[in-house]
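Hello again,

I reread your note about wanting to compare the complex against the isolated chains. To keep things tidy I'm splitting this into two emails, and this first one only covers the full assembly. Below are the input lines as submitted, including protein chains and any nucleic acid or small-molecule components. They are followed by the predicted structure of everything together. The single-chain runs will come separately.
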Amino acid sequence: EIVMTQSPATLSVSPGERVTLSCRASQSLNNNLAWYQQKPGQAPRLLIHGALTRATGIPARFSGSGSGSDFTLTISSLQSEDFAVYYCQQYNGWPRTFGRGTKVEIK
Amino acid sequence: QVHLQESGPGLVKPSETLSLTCTVSGFSINSGYYWGWIRQPPGKGLEWIGCIHHSGSTYYNPSLQSRLTISVDTSNNQFSLKLTSMTAADTAIYYCARDLTGLWGQGMLVTVSS
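Full-complex prediction:
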């Protein structure tokens, strides 16, 4: 089983700041990595797939980068609606696995 | 527009079996993809449960495999989850989803309590 480690667990940020979230896999993923955003009471929303590609309708301020086993989600200028929990998920193998999430909260 | 909807009991007694169904509309399960289940205990993170292809091929989370069965009913465009020997630790929001596409149901809370 591929273990996904996200850091930090919580990030306190002011609106307008640049945010960088990290996700590390226990083995190489061939870029088979997705990022999800989840707000309270909602199902997760796909932001990024293939480590780099924004999903349909996702604003350009969200970007994914990385390769191998180290990946990053960057929010270039945090908006009020971006305060949420962010999860990475690998789909390079079975079982699919998620990281424990990073909560982005208001500073 | 593709839509997934979970259905089943919201309350299950300890030691009983949970049965959930996901009904897919706007897309035929026979057209491809794996179809799966994810759960989220209250206030905690996401746990991938397992998935199934219309051919019947399945993949399960090893931590749940001994209690888990996922099946597909292509005639009704549905897939289902059965989880036996439920305990309080299985209390969670259960989501159905189409694998790899970001398409999820709204989720339903299942509580295990006597």
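For quick reference: Chain B touches chain A at residues 36, 45-48, 50-51, 59-62, 95, 99-102, 104-107 (CB under 8 Å).

B.
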